[in-house]
Design brief:
It is built from 8 helices and 13 strands. The protein is of the alpha+beta class. The chain has 2 domains: about 210 residues, 2-Layer Sandwich (BirA Bifunctional Protein, domain 2), CATH 3.30.930.10; about 55 residues, Roll (SH3 type barrels), CATH 2.30.30. Strand 1, helix 2 and strand 2 form a beta-alpha-beta unit. Helix 4 crosses helix 5 and helix 4 packs across helix 6. The C terminus is likely disordered.
Length: about 280
């Protein structure tokens, strides 16, 4: 077990367990293996160097030494559609943790951040990103094992750019060091393990989803602005109005039609309005 990573006292008191690694291929992959081997859940797997991470839609997630890669394995005893909302729980927990470890005033919103800044210092991008100053700071990936609510296991993977971020990405990226923060991956994980307890309690096995939705909207990026959503082949453009009771994105298209989207990639600002976006997405 690698040294330096610790659970908060609140997480320990709630029965969470921790395994940390100096280096690992994928914390999510290991979590799913543990689930199939009968792990009861409540297990954090964490590293400061992930060599085989992945993001949504099979994209690679870079994890150089010093960045944070953590996965929480849960057995939530809920249906898959309810378990999917754990992504919002994770985003809120990460935002709370970032606000706890970043010194006040260490980040100034860029002049061109526009509608992204409405979510505050750390804004939540639907469905599962956390932005800093309009740039991507982290990614969250949910993967499952099992079929029914009784044996459903959820691996909630969280990657955060702590000391480095990828270059030449479709959208700007950043890291905590670039923002002036001195917090380490271990510092952030300690705060994350604590914040996750609070937000899981708010979620209440899905019964508290309305409270999660309300808290998420308070920190959301881009509400009221023009967006384009790639739903996997179809591009939907319009104004981002809200998320509904099931945390689906609600967009009002140019013809006035209101469309609800369960999954997709959101693009803000100028990229959302370019005519050749379909070819670039």
């Amino acid at each position: 077990m690698a040294s330096g990573f610790n659970l908060s006292p609140t997480a320990v008191a709630d029965g969470f367990r921790l395994e940390s690694f100096a280096e690992i291929g994928s914390t999510n992959q290991l979590a799913l293996e543990r689930a199939r081997a009968g792990d009861p859940g409540g297990l954090w797997l964490v590293t400061g160097h992930q060599t085989g991470g992945r993001g949504r839609r099979g994209r690679a997630w870079e994890g150089p030494p010093g960045n944070l890669a953590a996965t929480l394995l849960l057995q939530p005893k809920v249906e898959l559609s309810v378990a999917a909302t754990l992504g919002f729980v994770a985003a809120l927990a990460l935002r709370d943790a970032l606000l706890a470890v970043l010194p006040e005033g260490a980040i100034a919103v860029a002049p061109d951040a526009g509608d992204l800044a409405r979510g505050g210092r750390f804004a939540l991008k639907w469905p599962n990103d956390v932005l800093a100053d309009g740039a991507k700071l982290s990614g969250i990936l949910l993967e499952t094992a099992g079929a029914g609510s009784d044996d459903l296991a959820v691996a909630i993977g969280i990657g955060v750019n702590v000391v480095a971020h990828p270059e030449a990405t479709p959208y700007p990226a950043t890291d905590l060091g670039a923002m002036g923060a001195t917090a380490t991956a271990a510092d952030l994980f300690f705060a994350l393990s604590d914040a996750f307890v609070d937000n899981l309690r708010l979620w209440q096995g899905g019964r508290g989803l309305a409270a999660i939705r309300h808290k998420w909207l308070a920190g959301a990026a881009g509400i009221g602005s023009e967006i384009a959503v790639d739903t996997g082949g179809t591009i939907v453009r319009g104004v981002f109005e809200t998320i509904d009771a099931d945390c689906h994105l609600v967009i009002r298209e140019g013809n006035g039609q209101v469309t609800r989207i369960a999954a997709g990639d959101v693009h803000f600002g100028a990229v959302a309005s370019v005519k050749n976006f379909e070819a670039r997405a």
